[in-house]
TrEMBL record:
The lineage of its organism: Bacteria, Pseudomonadati, Pseudomonadota, Betaproteobacteria, Burkholderiales. Pfam families: TatA_B_E. One of its GO terms (molecular function) is protein transmembrane transporter activity. The Tat system comprises two distinct complexes: a TatABC complex, containing multiple copies of TatA, TatB and TatC subunits, and a separate TatA complex, containing only TatA subunits. Substrates initially bind to the TatABC complex, which probably triggers association of the separate TatA complex to form the active translocon. NCBIfam families: tatB. This is Sec-independent protein translocase protein TatB. Part of the twin-arginine translocation (Tat) system that transports large folded proteins containing a characteristic twin-arginine motif in their signal peptide across membranes. Together with TatC, TatB is part of a receptor directly interacting with Tat signal peptides. TatB may form an oligomeric binding site that transiently accommodates folded Tat precursor proteins before their translocation. The keyword Hydrolase does not apply. It is a single-pass membrane protein. It comes from Roseateles chitinivorans. The gene is tatB.
Length: 161
């Protein structure tokens, strides 16, 4: 950039005073200051835009690195799962070839656990595990009671007068 010292600025000011005159010099100085401020703001905006684009490129590079790392981890996990599944299938096929059945019979001298079947019990019909005598001793409510019945139940007895 152009380097202006104090002596050069004084020379430019003296020439402007002679050429423009004292009447027009303040108005021209304000205009020049305004244009200089606009130019500085424009340069600052361009710098900010360049910085934003550089940061965006860096973020995109980081995103690409992260995606490659994720795909590598996913591939290794899938490879481990496949190898474990293959080992399980080979063990299961060895057991089912040696035995008679896979539906709960004996396979290779060992009993096979049958497939879980839900008991299909209706939970509404189950009785509580707490005995009735214990509930009565503690005063646990077993039935719904209306407000009027509750008031009548707990109303103190009338005194005879």
């Amino acid at each position: 950039m152009v380097d202006f010292g104090f002596d050069k600025l004084m020379l430019i000011g003296a020439v402007a005073l002679v050429v423009l005159g004292p009447e027009r010099l303040p108005r021209v100085a304000r205009t020049v200051g305004t244009l200089l401020g606009k130019a500085q703001r424009y340069v600052a905006d361009v710098k900010a835009e360049v910085n934003r684009s550089i940061e965006l490129e860096e973020l995109q590079k980081m995103k690409g690195q992260f995606e490659t790392a994720v795909s590598d981890v996913q591939a290794s996990v899938q490879e481990q799962v496949d190898s474990a599944n293959q080992a399980l299938q080979s063990t299961w096929s060895d057991l089912s070839v040696d035995g008679t059945s896979s539906e709960g019979g004996l396979i290779g001298g060992h009993s096979v656990v049958p497939v879980y079947a839900h008991p299909k019990k209706n939970w509404r019909l189950k009785r509580g595990a707490t005995p009735l005598w214990y509930k009565q001793r503690l005063g646990v409510k077993r039935h719904a009671q209306s407000g009027a019945a509750r008031v009548a139940r707990f109303r103190p007895p009338r005194r005879a007068s």
